[in-house]
Amino acid sequence: MGSAGKVPGADLGARKLKERIAFDGEVCDAGDIIPAVDPGTRKGLRNLDRVLDVSTRLRDLASEAFGTGCFVLNIAGDHSCALGSIAAACEAFGPEHFGILYLDAHGDINTPESSPSGNIHGMSLAAALGFGDPELQSVAPVKALPDHVIFVGTRALDPPEQELAEREGMGVIPAHDIREQGVEAALAQIRAFVQERGIRHLHFSIDIDVVDPGEAPGTGVREKRGISAEEFLAIVRAVRDMEILCSADLVEFIPALDREGRTEHLCHEVLDYFIS
Ligand SMILES: [Mn+2]
Questions:
Q1: What is the CA(139)–ligand 1 centre distance, in A?
Q2: CATH architecture classification, 10-275
Q3: pLDDT tens across 50-67, in order?
Q4: 183 C-alpha vs ligand 1 centroid, how far in Å?
Q5: In the chain, fewer beta carbons within 10 Å around the N or the C end?
């Protein structure tokens, strides 16, 4: 679905990416989640009911998959749905040893009070951690621990998000640090973070907007000075190889905004890492 973001069209991106996946005995298709609720604004939150519908259904599908020992890969439109995949993973594995690596230009830890845009895709992680709108929070019966969240590649944390991240002890590795100090330094920080907190089950939420818009223009909320495509792929590969991943999201690819298929190509490389 693509209804909780600023720019429409992310649902088409998910569909396009999925077309090229070969489903066999190893890789199962749990199906598509098509919004069943009309768009509309309630409590000042655009498409609140749609987000509740889609993320709840995703949560239930993912829970079922975790129950059979599967790795869950959520290819989706806008990032609001991560509320569902995170909620399912946290419930399946329990919060104590569960963590979230959020590879995104943004933090998505706004609340209705702090959000400059009112778009729910900037609030989904907050809700999974127990902040913000109670209805959104109710999608996650078991809340993930805020200090088990690490942001990587961020460059657009709003001031209230920054405050929340600091207050709650979340990890932050900004895009700037990765560009200055290199990928290896970032990976060492990620490994230390995971180890210190005893994280054994990691949800990897990948927003393609983490990559510099010069190399990945096909996304709705572009932020300058991102990490390079090469740095991005190196991080995705290394995190996958940590062998503690239980689930991942790949979101926010919008084909209509892409140029020469650059963003699509990057998304396919990511999917190959997880599927092959
Ligand atoms: Mn983002």
A1: 21
A2: 3-Layer(aba) Sandwich (3.40)
A3: 999 999 999 999 999 999
A4: 20
A5: C
